[in-house]
Amino acid sequence: MKSNLHKRLVLIISLGLAVWLAGIVVTPVLASNSWPLGRKVAAFMYFFYKPVCHQIPGRSFCLDGFTLAVCVRCFSFYLGGLFITLACLFKGKIRLWPLTTYILMAAPAFLDFVLEKFNLYTNIDLLRLVTGLLLGIAVFQLLLVSFSTSTTKQGTESLT
Amino acid sequence: MDNQRIMAAGFVGGLVAGALNSIPILNFINCFCCAGIMLGGAVALIYYDRSFTVREYINPATAVTVGITAGLFGAFISLGIDYLIYINFGHWELDFMYDVLEAIEEVPPVIEEMLYELEQDLQAGFIWGSLLFRNLILMPIFCLIGAMITRVYINKNREESI
After folding, report:
1. What is the ipTM of this complex?
2. Are B139 and B74 in contact (CB under 8 A)?
3. What are the residue ranges spanned by the domains of chain B?
4. Does the predicted TM-score (pTM) go above 0.90?
5. Quick one: closest CA in B to A28, which residue?
């Protein structure tokens, strides 16, 4: 019963991430379309994703001559999230990793972000892709762990 | 669950999320995978946890409620801050986008058209409804993620301290 609930939750998170990612990829396709309504929708989609990403064209993947709705790092962050939720869905079990694992997975993206912000070096898309992917896996794994443990008077128990 | 405590925690978290979402320069933190808004959810849950003298384990339902409440407060607070900024500085985000586009050698005409259309919509007042709509969707989701992640470490620390 509890396991079913957990599976449903993971499924909902996976679907949510898939829809989120689809929105990111569909935006440039709509923008490149000659259909006026499609372009209006694309403009709104760029506006919609604006608070979650800087959307700088030079740091984003292009599709049909237009950039995706988020930058490479953010795109790979959500992609990493989708990857880990799908893995959890098929594997069925999830447990908390040691804190150092999360730190090691998040540190490259953080360093990449900070060093670049202070113009200490110029990174490349592949590096952003890999660091974002690792960060996404770490963050969404933690989220799944949080959803997979219920609370009792004695402490926490796994639902998986 | 204690509704009064949840509202207080939600408001504090909403203040953090709203400020980090709307105040220029501070909102650069969101370039790092929306960390600023998630931080709002995390702050809300920590505030909620610390409001108890006898601290218990936090269950998922409480973390979800606190996170979503913080996001909803944050959505309105962010809109308020955006409005204050608009009154004082105008559409600085649109100006920023124009500056970015000017740095590019060849801007596709379609993008220019889209920006022009967006500017028209902004002037028509369409933007405030859109901003609120966007905030009401994005902020609860990311605050919830922040609160749920924080829950893992609050409970883990509690287990270790017992």
Report:
1. 0.85
2. yes
3. 3-89+128-161
4. no
5. B111
